[in-house]
Amino acid sequence: MALSNLFDFNTPIDRKGTWCTQWDYVQDRFGIANLVPFTISDMDFKIAPCIEEALHRRISHGVLGYSRWQNEEYLEAIKYWYSSQFNATIDTNMIVYGPSVIYMVAKLINLWSQQNDSIVVHTPAYDAFYKTIIGNKRKIEACPLIKRDNSWYCDMNYLETLLAKKEVKILLLCNPHNPTGKVWSKEELAIIAALCEKYHVNVISDEIHMDMVWKGSHNPWCQYGKNSWAVLSSASKSFNIPALTGAYGLIQCEKTRENYLNQIKACDGVSSPAVLSLVATIAAYKQGHIWLHELKNYLYNNLDFVAKQLNHVFPQLDYAIPDSTYLAWIDLRKLNIDDIKLQENLIHEQGVAIMPGYTYGPEGNQFLRLNIGCPRSKVETGVNAIINAIKALE
């Protein structure tokens, strides 16, 4: 994949002083300010020109009153994206709005389960999954993914033993999977769908990383789900607009859709969407495909750079580019590096903030999650820091 000649992803942009979580609040998680961060999964790039222009046009109108998401332009943009990108046909009547994917996960957890019920999660898992499940007084049933030949697999027999438990009400699927980057195959999704139907388990599929697939193609759960399910996503991850807030879901069950919409309006007061999020999503899905294509080329080259640099210095790592996401999930187990000492060196000696794998559960011990959604010069800083820190601990 060649570097982009159409858009500038190379020039660093100073995000400090913009109330930016990744840069301005790095001290909250790592204890020290002024670290170079490779943490929360947003990107250090400007938004697509088509989105910027659409936002300018809407703001220039001058009135930003209450709005509705149930408009044809927004719904059709989502339908068009699924058709053009994934060859999937969706029913716009299934679409619902939410402030964020995790907000919608929490609402569905409460609609589909009771306190002390259990939810199956493939681990290591996105840390917000743990927080949301525990925060809503549910229990986690971990289904560890297995690494073999630089790919990640699910033990379907073990998954079935979990889904068969009477207290399990929901499978919270991450599709594609964060942090491993696993892309679920058609065959795997078909098996999981059959198991969930067999044991009457509801499925919530978080598909926010769906556009960032490097190997194979994304397979939306809506093409496989049989019983009660919801697919949740947003343009925020792919097009770097999380600050605008806004996500959407496809909820298969009409009664659940009605209950969800009643809950967010009556209980949470979410009756009017962030209109700029709607504008940005429409622009992204109707006009942003060229920008996204070029961005993905750039990100893939960043991942390739990480792999080549690490494997050159530490060939025993045999690090491979993940199948999806712009998050390098780096397995350091062959080096037997102490996680705590590595973090201390990265922070205090190298001056960088890189997510320790144990953030995502015990299965993440001796891993790092490196966000490469940034100019190459910053990626070089992060990779050099990892190399220097490991050498210092050998």
From TrEMBL:
Domain Aminotransferase class I/classII large, by residue range, is 35-386
Kindly give the SUPFAM superfamilies that the UniProt entry links to this protein: PLP-dependent transferases
The protein's required cofactor(s) are namely: pyridoxal 5'-phosphate
- The EC designation for this entry is 4.4.1.13
Give the enzyme's main class according to its UniProt record, as a single word: lyase
Alphabetized Pfam families for the sequence: Aminotran_1_2 (PF00155)
| Protein's UniProt keywords contain Transmembrane | no
- State the Gene Ontology terms under molecular function: cysteine-S-conjugate beta-lyase activity; pyridoxal phosphate binding
Query: Which UniProt keywords are listed?
Result: Lyase, Pyridoxal phosphate
Q: Which Gene3D superfamilies match?
A: Aspartate Aminotransferase, domain 1, Type I PLP-dependent aspartate aminotransferase-like (Major domain)
- State the source organism's domain of life: Bacteria
Q: Which family does it belong to?
A: Belongs to the class-II pyridoxal-phosphate-dependent aminotransferase family. MalY/PatB cystathionine beta-lyase subfamily.
Record protein name field: cysteine-S-conjugate beta-lyase
Organism in which the protein naturally occurs: Gilliamella apicola
